[in-house]
Amino acid sequence: MKKTILSLTLVTVLGTSANANPIKETKEVKTSESQVTWKGYKVGGSHEGTISLKSGALEFDGEKLVGGEFVVDMTSINTTDLEGDYKGQLDGHLKSDDFFGTANHPTAKLVFTKVKSTGKNSYDVTGDLTIKGTTEPVTFEVSVYGDKATASLKVDRTKYDVKYGSGIIGTAKDKLIYDEFDLVVDLQM
């Protein structure tokens, strides 16, 4: 009888502790199947395009998102709403020191620092975003569905010394470029 009670106690304790500590897993992002789109705004219009992920991963504790880290290839910045010479000019300008200075800063990086569940598949995320060697915190929402994840965030470019055409440095009103740009991220794991 004592052996049976001891065996049942051990099974209960071991079973409970196994369930209390789900296995942590890192899921690598399939960079060729994932997409990052950007949209920047100016007085009288906007421009949009894509940028490639160099690497990325999301970390899970069981089914729960707990972390992530991504590296973006800034040299891949591409305008999709223009063609010909205008496209080439804007792509070149975005890569120049006026904007992202990709010759000296070929990558940008995002590291999750805090992840809070807000629902079954939804999370509020705070992360450290590094652009042009400057790191600033950003907050955004992430949704995870199986092997897919999506996120949308606004980035204030002036925090990363990207001030060309910004209203804060006295740009002529018809050349004003708004300080915030949007990123929409669709990840495949």
TrEMBL record:
Signal peptide start and end residues: 1-20
SUPFAM superfamilies noted in UniProt: YceI-like
Database matches in InterPro entries: Lipid/polyisoprenoid-bd_YceI, TTHA0802/YceI-like_sf
Keywords: Signal
Span of domain Lipid/polyisoprenoid-binding YceI-like: 26-188
Pfam family, one: YceI
Official protein name in the record: YceI family protein
Organism of this sequence: Flagellimonas aurea
